[in-house]
Design goal:
81 residues; alpha+beta; three-stranded antiparallel beta sheet; 3 helices; 3 strands; 46% helix
């Protein structure tokens, strides 16, 4: 695995960990439970300008907007959470 791929994986894992940290906070947990707050994890691809969001159901990051799909680099599918 290249340095860039490892950096990408660690960055994605950090976003997921920070989302989990937010969910563990009592105030955030309560608002999420009530349905009045959603926590999102996004990654910005500097090289392409694309934005990816963490999809908890799929356990991976996916393109936020349809036009971002074409600009994202093709990587091996990997489930990180």
């Amino acid at each position: 695995m290249s340095f860039e791929d490892r950096l990408q994986l660690i960055t994605e894992a950090n976003v997921v960990a920070q989302m989990q940290n937010l969910h563990a906070h009592p105030a955030v947990y309560e608002f999420v439970r009530k349905g009045s707050l959603n926590v999102h994890g996004w990654m910005y691809e500097i090289a392409s300008g694309g934005i990816r969001r963490f999809d908890a159901e799929k356990g991976r990051f996916t393109a936020l907007l349809p036009e971002d799909i074409a600009s994202l680099p093709v990587r091996d599918e990997r489930k990180i959470a």
